[in-house]
């Protein structure tokens, strides 16, 4: 039986604050699944037209699927959030593009008519689950020189990019980072994220506190100030804490619905999904991933780069953004289309959650720029991948 | 000495987008939920310090607990340190003064009751303007009257002002005297203790929003004014209830009644001062000191399973029950429900087996009805039981418990028959209440596997399990009995084999005293009233009716055979059994059955005893027998006696079981020449 594809809409997106992954970080004593539950409940509370039983699936990403991020998090969190037992759920992993993959899966499910309302998002509690926790890389990778050992160290992949493109200097990376911090500060000061970040009461050694602010932003960062920073990945390197995204704890999620559901329930969509794509690159320079992914999604949707009014590019490392700017001939570091409200260097990057964070922030950018038509959310992914999703601004 | 955990009041601030700056005050003793927050001098000092340092520009304050725990009230273990009445009164004043600072803060205050809340923990919440309660709260209570205290940090004054005198009496007086009944969060909310009831999942977030709504004026809470118009009749009704539970034995509940009544007339400060005076009296009372000891016995010591050797127990994968009568059926259900392993029930009568099956299936159905277990699970459990006439079905059982007729010959026979089919290490347990474990084991191939497993009727209600070691019983058998006891949720007291074991030996000794007295001019009613005034849960002649005169007679005869100098069977009692009477009273009344009265031979030459003299005889007999049990080495320490009397005979906390009371009243010194525990030993024990 032939079917028509359904429209897929982003109804809402929100996130917890992003904490620093440290013993004194705001979320240090909070479980990742509890953070997911908070986001799920916030999405449903903010959209009361949607009965919990209407949710067709609950898809959650985590890079380390262990402990509080394991137990098929999508299902476990649905139960913990108090959704009816009839609501299923599952987990996905595409490292940093985990949440975006969850969202893209939801988009396909809805587009095909196999679902009408789906919750999708990602979480990473990098204090409880340090990067690479429990990983056991096959020795063949190294013995057969399938990849260079640096491919497994994300900081080194950024150093590799600097090596590959020596004209993308540390100074440019630092300038980029300072600009990202500045944009984030302005957006935070303007209160743009007041309805994006969900306050959550969390247990700490000092008693209950309310996590309502990102811990990562450094609004007063300067290029000068970054000069003395330690170079953790190699001597004489260019990548440091100031021009990288940091280690963070956070959860972010989206509520997606079919055109049919929008009409029936009177929902107010913020964005319409246009298309998505993934692409692979050499693991040693995984930061290049967004470039082929962006090209591929544009090709598949029959669009040109210039059709995009805004780009939400995950800033795992500043150098990877410099490469992206160059690849698409953008207007340098200060191109207004790029990460208009700041990026991961300021907000932080709890690995698998970041895709949903980008979607939430793009929706906010669209809201502030009603005339904008299209935007893209894109991330680089460990082990050499890129993920990208194109959205249309339908908010009014 | 146990490490003291001091509850700290930790303050954080939160800039709420609508309401402005809020203070979040967390009570936290730094340990996990297994060591709940308590209040002592250190905690109150921390509260005062937190209030001193509180930012002055806050718009509201939320007081809450640590994860899963709000606060369980005063640290009882500090009680022995309070040496004078003035200190005790001061304890009250210090608490009132510290808590009142929350009341006088001048901005809206909210207690977010997130977990276990008792005594002072509930009281501090009452000084806040508003309360939210989590549906995750499973235990909320003012247990003071149960312990020989009153909720004297404001409870008796603030509770009636908040929810009215009738519900206050329920919370402060009735619940504690009904086995220290606790309520859950939902019930607490329905009683009016909370303004909002929230689910645990977002309890703190929703509580903060509620406080913000109060501050911004979006929500207004209007409470009904408490109705004190019928206070006198309510108090009188409650007084009757208290008398029914403890007669004139316990002092604290009566003091609580006076304070609640006072709440209808006094100003708050007057009320608080009255509470201070009550605390002065009660903290210094013997009853509270005994309660602290009893609390330790049941809450701490019992969990340690004193006397159970630390060797790995056998794992129990299949259970056998010999006999299928009423007691065997009760035990069969208990094992099936708690162990969830295949079970064999064997009897010599198919009819008895059929009745057992009906009983056990019925009990499981009742569990389903109450929502305790799901029906498919009940069906599974029903299917685990094999009702049989064949001993050979005991094959594979790891633990076989007999509950057949109380006759040594029969018991030996059924054990020997079972031994044919079980492994060499499987346990043979007996629920005998009077027969020698050593003798019962004597002719078996493996006497070291036999152990006494003596339950108290009704099994579902009384938590005590006497674990009796025969001469040859080995450690692994005792350890296995301990492990099984834990699974079936019984409190063990481990003892050597001796006639009457522990609880029955003491109770039958008092029964001998009582029946000797009523052979003389005193009536059973006089004896019962005198004993009830101690605060005991059941009068001797009501206990006789509960046990049944025939069973009591049989048991007493066993004791007379062992200890003819101290136990006796009266002719009147024998007549009662011959007449097949259910007791001396017309059932359900306190009126002597006229036929019993006619047959009863009174020796009027005996002196008529006053109530005091009756109690004295009763208590002296207890002191003497308890001393002998210790001197005979049946149990290791007096704590075993008290645990057994509290858990197996319902003796009250405020008597500290029985030896505390006997020591406090000088009876043990008079009768035995020494106390059961000297004051130093008691303090050392409590601070261990």
Report a brief summary of the structure.
The complex is a heterodimer of chains A (396) and B (688). Chain A is α/β, with parallel strands linked by helices and 396 residues long.
Tally of DSSP helical segments of chain A: 12
Average pLDDT for all residues of chain B: 96
Enter the CATH topology name of the largest domain in chain B. Answer: 2-enoyl-CoA Hydratase, Chain A, domain 1
Assembly context of the chains: heterodimer
Assign the structural class of chain B, choosing from mainly alpha, mainly beta, alpha/beta, alpha+beta, or little secondary structure: alpha/beta
Low-confidence runs of chain B (pLDDT<50, min 5 residues)?
none
Report mean pLDDT of chain A, rounded to a whole number. 97
Structure description:
The complex is a heterodimer of chains A (396) and B (688). Chain A is an alpha/beta fold. Chain A is 31% helix and 21% strand. Chain A has a domain at 8-129 and 246-393: Thiolase/Chalcone synthase (Peroxisomal Thiolase, Chain A, domain 1, 3-Layer(aba) Sandwich). Chain A contains twelve helices and 13 strands. In chain A, helix 1 (32-46) crosses helix 2, helix 3 (98-111) packs across helix 12 and helix 6 (170-189) packs across helix 10 (318-327). Chain B is of the alpha/beta class. Chain B folds into three domains: 8-284, 2-enoyl-CoA Hydratase, Chain A, domain 1 (Alpha-Beta Complex), CATH 3.90.226; 319-496, 3-Layer(aba) Sandwich (Rossmann fold); 503-633, Orthogonal Bundle (N-(1-d-carboxylethyl)-l-norvaline Dehydrogenase, domain 2), CATH 1.10.1040.50. Chain B is 48% helix and 12% strand. Chain B has 29 helices and 17 strands. In chain B, the strands form three sheets. Chain B has an eight-stranded mixed beta sheet. Chain B has a six-stranded mixed beta sheet with strand order 1-2-3-5-7-9, sandwiched between helices. In chain B, helix 18 links the parallel strand 16 (464-469) and strand 17. In chain B, helix 6 (165-177) runs parallel beside helix 9. Chain B is globular. The mean pLDDT of chain B is 96. Classes of the chains: A alpha/beta (396), B alpha/beta (688). Chain A binds chain B through residues 37-38, 41, 80-82, 194, 199-201, 203, 206-210, 212, and chain B through 10-12, 14, 17, 24-26, 28, 64, 66-67, 199, 201-202, 204-205, 208.
């Amino acid at each position: 039986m032939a079917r028509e594809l359904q429209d897929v809409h982003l109804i809402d997106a929100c996130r917890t604050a992003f904490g620093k992954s440290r013993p004194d970080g705001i979320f240090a004593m909070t479980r990742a699944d509890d953070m997911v539950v908070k986001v799920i409940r916030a999405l449903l509370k903010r959209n009361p037209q949607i009965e919990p039983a209407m949710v067709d699936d609950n898809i959650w990403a985590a890079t380390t699927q262990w402990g509080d991020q394991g137990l098929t998090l999508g299902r476990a969190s649905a139960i913990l959030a108090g959704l009816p037992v009839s609501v299923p759920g599952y987990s996905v992993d595409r490292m940093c593009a985990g949440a975006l993959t969850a969202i893209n899966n939801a988009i396909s499910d809805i587009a095909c008519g196999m679902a009408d309302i789906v919750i999708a998002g990602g979480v990473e509690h990098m204090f409880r689950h340090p990067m690479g926790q429990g990983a056991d890389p096959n020795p063949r990778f190294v013995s057969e020189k399938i990849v260079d050992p640096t491919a497994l160290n994300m900081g080194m992949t950024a150093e590799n990019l600097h090596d590959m493109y020596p004209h993308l200097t540390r100074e440019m990376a630092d300038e980029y980072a300072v600009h990202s911090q500045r944009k984030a500060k302005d957006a935070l000061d303007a209160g743009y994220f007041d309805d994006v970040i969900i306050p959550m009461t969390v247990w700490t050694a000092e008693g209950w506190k309310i996590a309502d602010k990102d811990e990562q932003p450094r609004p007063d960062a300067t290029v000068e100030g970054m000069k003395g920073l330690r170079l953790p990945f190699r001597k004489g390197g260019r990548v440091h804490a100031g021009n990288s995204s940091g280690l963070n704890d956070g959860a972010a999620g989206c509520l997606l619905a079919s055109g049919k559901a929008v009409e029936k329930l009177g929902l107010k969509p913020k964005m319409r999904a246009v298309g998505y794509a993934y692409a692979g690159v050499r693991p040693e320079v995984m930061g290049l991933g967004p470039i082929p992914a962006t090209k591929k999604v544009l090709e598949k949707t029959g669009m040109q780069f210039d059709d995009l009014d805004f780009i939400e590019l995950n800033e795992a490392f500043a150098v990877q953004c410099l490469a992206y700017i160059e690849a698409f001939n953008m207007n340098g570091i200060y191109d207004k289309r790029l990460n208009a409200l700041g990026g991961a260097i300021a907000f932080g990057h709890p690995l698998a959650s970041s895709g949903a964070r980008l979607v939430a922030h793009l929706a906010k950018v669209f809201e502030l720029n009603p005339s904008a038509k299209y935007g893209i959310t894109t991330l680089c992914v460990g082990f050499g991948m890129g993920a990208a999703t194109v959205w249309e601004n339908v908010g009014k | 000495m146990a490490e003291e955990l001091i509850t700290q009041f930790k303050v954080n601030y939160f800039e709420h987008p609508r309401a402005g700056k809020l203070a979040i005050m967390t009570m936290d003793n730094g340990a996990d939920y297994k060591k709940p927050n308590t209040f002592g001098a250190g905690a109150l000092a921390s509260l005062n310090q937190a209030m001193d340092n509180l930012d002055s520009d806050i718009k509201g304050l939320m007081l809450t607990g640590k994860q899963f725990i709000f606060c369980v009230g005063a640290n009882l273990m500090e009680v022995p340190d309070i040496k004078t009445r003035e200190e005790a009164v001061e304890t009250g004043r210090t608490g009132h003064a510290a808590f009142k600072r929350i009341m006088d803060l001048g901005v809206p205050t909210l207690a977010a009751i997130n977990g276990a809340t008792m005594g002072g923990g509930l009281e501090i919440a009452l000084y806040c303007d508003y309360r939210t309660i989590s549906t995750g709260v499973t235990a909320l209570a003012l247990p003071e009257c149960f312990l020989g205290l009153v909720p004297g940090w404001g409870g008796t004054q603030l509770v009636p002002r908040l929810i009215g005198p009738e519900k206050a009496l329920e919370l402060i007086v009735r619940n504690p005297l009904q086995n220290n009944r606790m309520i859950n969060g939902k019930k607490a909310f329905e009683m009016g203790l909370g303004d909002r009831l929230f689910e645990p999942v977002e309890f703190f977030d929703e509580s903060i929003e509620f406080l913000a709504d109060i501050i911004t004026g979006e929500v207004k809470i209007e409470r009904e004014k408490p109705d004190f118009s019928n206070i006198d009749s309510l108090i009188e009704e409650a007084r009757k209830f208290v008398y029914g539970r403890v007669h004139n034995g316990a002092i604290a509940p009566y003091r609580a009644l006076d304070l609640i009544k006072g709440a209808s007339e006094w100003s708050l400060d007057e009320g608080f001062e009255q509470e201070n005076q009550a605390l002065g009296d009660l903290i210094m009372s013997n009853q509270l000191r005994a309660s602290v000891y009893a609390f330790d016995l049941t809450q701490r010591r019992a969990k340690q399973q004193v006397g159970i050797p630390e060797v790995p127990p056998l794992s129990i994968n299949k259970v056998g029950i010999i006999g299928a009568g009423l007691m065997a059926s009760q035990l069969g259900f208990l094992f099936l429900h708690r162990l969830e392993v295949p079970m064999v029930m064997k009897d010599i009568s198919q009819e008895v087996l059929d009745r057992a099956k009906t009983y056990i299936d019925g009990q499981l159905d009742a569990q389903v009805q109450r929502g305790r277990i799901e029906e498919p699970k009940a069906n599974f459990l029903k299917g685990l039981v094999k009702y049989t006439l064949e001993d050979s079905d005991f094959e594979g059982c790891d633990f076989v418990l007999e509950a057949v007729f109380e006759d040594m010959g029969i018991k030996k026979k059924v054990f020997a028959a079972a031994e044919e089919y079980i492994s060499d290490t499987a346990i043979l347990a007996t629920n005998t209440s009077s027969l020698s474990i050593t003798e019962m084991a004597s002719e078996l191939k493996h006497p070291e596997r036999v152990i006494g497993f003596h339950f108290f009727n009704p099994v579902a209600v009384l938590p005590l399990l006497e674990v009796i070691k025969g001469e040859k019983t080995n450690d692994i058998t005792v350890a296995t009995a301990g492990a099984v006891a834990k699974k079936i949720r019984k409190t063990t007291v481990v003892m050597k084999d001796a006639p009457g074991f522990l609880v029955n030996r003491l109770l039958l000794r008092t029964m001998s005293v009582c029946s000797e007295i009523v052979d003389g001019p005193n009536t059973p009613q006089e004896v019962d009233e005198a004993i009830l005034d101690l605060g005991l849960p059941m009068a001797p002649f009501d206990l006789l009716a509960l046990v049944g005169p025939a069973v009591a007679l049989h048991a007493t005869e066993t004791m007379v055979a062992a200890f003819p100098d101290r136990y006796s069977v009266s002719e009147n009692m024998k007549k009662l059994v011959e007449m097949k009477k259910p007791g001396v009273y017309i059932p359900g009344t306190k009126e002597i059955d006229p036929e019993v009265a006619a047959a009863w031979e009174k020796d009027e030459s005996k002196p008529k005893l006053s109530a005091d003299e009756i109690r004295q005889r009763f208590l002296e007999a207890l002191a003497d027998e308890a001393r002998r049990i210790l001197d005979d080495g049946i149990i290791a320490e007096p704590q075993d006696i008290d645990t057994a009397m509290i858990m197996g005979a319902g003796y009250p906390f405020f008597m500290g079981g029985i030896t505390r009371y006997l020591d406090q009243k000088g009876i043990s010194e008079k009768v035995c020449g020494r106390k059961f525990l000297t004051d130093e030993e008691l303090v050392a024990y409590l601070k261990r």
